[in-house]
Design brief:
alpha/beta; Aspartate Aminotransferase, domain 2; homodimer; 13 helices
């Protein structure tokens, strides 16, 4: 491909209601464009300190080792595994969607031994199965699970899972990519040992950063490792010195300066709103969307008690070409919603109401656009009822 | 630390003439703030294709596997090593500064065996020593070296080193973090097998991305590995599917959407200027800075033939507190220059003229500010001559 035709890229203006990225607030976009400064500049170091404190709040933790990894959520996941798993370690991994499978890959690539607990895609993690596995594998060192499965819209009971893990003397690694900022996540209260998230879901920052946090217990295990962490870039023993307190920081890598401005701004916005208010907002708009979806005659894939308010898996009605619906939404309304993955491919849509995307406007817009497109395609739905149903919840 | 006092972060406006990041052009900053779209959006996928083509041009290569890694240069380095080094592989590593040492760390963490060839910090890599090592270690699989040592301002002869490697049947891993876009780098002509760079040096994008390129020979080795790459996030077998051509892309991780807008824009600017013109610009402003520096009575640390035009190591005059000079430049002139690292700490300043920072304005400004600060601190320099000397080169 030649390059002579290449011009500045001017992206279309979308409404992002898929599984992430979510819409980014203009304040965060403006922060991304502020003048770049050096990663060792005193002003930048002060910003880093604030970022850590803001992450403490978002994660509800006082863990000293709470930082944004300079890469997307997948790298945050890898940070947890490469630092905590040593060759030969048994790790109990719960899988009820795509991301549990990725955890297994991580354990194997660290030379660990994954013990897989499988649940149906679209269901929460079964606590009894986990307890049985922890009993059977008394030498397991770690329990790893996904709090909010982005691939299915399912929430599992992180508090109870952590309680179980402690009872069987395991550390926990928790995927909170889609939960942070959208649904209660209490790292200290639940005694989570290692948690990672992403910038582009309920924090509504641009994609590319992964906030992580590690308990003292986890830090002790990392500091006492028999052999070096296999990744230099993700080695927390080095990153601790880089993100450590005080003026003396050991240079590790060049931080992604402008994306960190963006994350800082998005965390300021969460602080100003208040975490509890943000959680309540996600729940309220989920209920409004749900009312509209059900009034249309569509149904949720996940049973009520397991649903993630910020990621709604809707079952595709029989005979409807789900990809055609998404294509029309994108082309006619510039609205992005998500497809199903894995065993749910072709069978569900995933509608995100995350962060700045979780607004009354988007609920109404999405219901209207979806109804219009489904009608155009001749799908068997109830017409004209969705917006009223949603309005009642919102008012 | 509380968070109640945290406000939007408004960075100071600096002139960045350290070892990176360099100044970012307003066009690139504006691109960073464009509306975020989904990483699977058709418009985004078209942008990714253009990005690859623009990187082909910047690297002067037709390597199909030419992509930006979604993380800083250190992760680009790690991408090369984790994919190409298998346990037990002997890797000849040249060290003449900080980054050769980091390569050694990478080899070890991949289970490889580094054979270190050491040169003085501030000198280029000695070809004879390398050839001797390649002869002695006939079973070495890879030669790894730094083309442009950011820590010392030294350029080594990448073309000759690659020629040597081929003669002894080794693949090459080349650090081009500071050379890409600033000084000739001809990946195909020199037959480099694996090369990584950074977005924040002579490309003048914001920090956080690492362009990489791999030859067919390298790809074959990666595809024929005995065991999986130890990093899931950096596994090129997976990344190839993600960045592959055509509409069918396998989801791997969520791309850092807005930073990629920025990189796209910075590469458009390089294309519009022309690579050869960019190289000539870096050389011209280096010569102007040099004339001014020498007219002041200061001297370069690196001998003339080994100097990197985009990163100038200047010897600190005896009796001058180098940190005090940098502090004053930052506080009085909002000008950032770099300190020495490792064995050069306290003995040199590193003045970058990279990318958008490489302008006549910055040459003049830096000489003027440096002269003023040195005079204020009572350093024994020639006064009033630097700007005339630089002007003669620039005119």
């Amino acid at each position: 491909m030649g390059i002579n035709h290449c011009r500045s890229f001017v992206p279309p203006v979308r409404t992002l209601m898929g599984p992430g990225p979510s819409d980014v607030h203009p304040r965060v976009l403006a922060a991304m464009a502020r003048p770049t400064i050096g990663h060792l500049d005193p002003a930048f170091i002060q910003m880093m300190d604030e970022l850590k404190s803001l992450l403490h709040y978002a994660f509800q933790t006082e863990n000293e080792l709470t930082i944004p990894v300079s890469a997307p959520g997948s790298a945050g996941m890898e940070t947890c595994f490469v630092n905590l798993v040593e060759p030969g370690d048994k790790v109990v991994v719960c899988q009820n969607g795509v991301f549990g499978g990725r955890m297994k890959e991580n354990v194997e690539r660290c030379g660990g031994q994954p013990i897989m607990i499988e649940d149906e895609w679209g269901a929460a993690i079964d606590l009894d199965k986990v307890e049985k596995a922890l009993k059977t594998h008394a030498d397991a060192k770690i329990l790893a699970f996904v709090h909010a499965e982005t691939s299915t819209g399912v929430q599992s009971d992180a508090e109870q899972l952590c309680e179980l893990a402690r009872r069987y003397d395991c550390l926990t690694i928790v995927d909170a990519v889609t939960s942070l900022g959208g649904t209660p996540l209490n790292v200290d209260e639940w005694a989570i040992d290692a948690v990672y998230s992403g910038s582009q879901k309920c924090l509504s920052c641009t994609p590319g950063l992964s906030p992580v946090s590690f308990s003292e217990r986890a830090v002790k295990k990392i500091q006492g490792r028999q052999r070096k962490v296999q990744s230099w870039f993700l080695d927390l023993n080095l990153l601790m010195n880089y993100w450590g307190s005080g003026a003396k920081r050991a240079y590790h890598h060049t931080a992604p300066v402008n994306p960190l401005y963006g994350l800082h701004e998005s965390l300021i916005m969460i602080k100003d709103e208040g975490l509890e208010n943000a959680w309540a907002r996600h729940e309220r708009h989920h209920q409004a969307l749900r009312a509209g979806i059900e009034a249309m005659g569509l149904s949720f894939t996940v049973k009520e008690s397991d649903r993630l308010p910020q990621l709604n898996a809707i079952s595709v009605p029989q005979g409807v070409d789900e990809a055609a619906v998404r294509k029309r939404l994108l082309e006619q309304y510039s609205l992005e919603i998500g497809a199903g993955l894995g065993s749910l491919a072709g069978r569900v849509w995933r509608i995100g109401l995350m962060g700045y995307s979780s607004t009354p406007k988007n609920v109404m817009f999405c219901l209207g656009a979806l109804e219009a497109v489904l009608c155009d395609l001749g799908a068997p739905i109830e017409q004209g009822k969705a917006s009223t149903a949603a309005r009642i919840v919102l008012s």
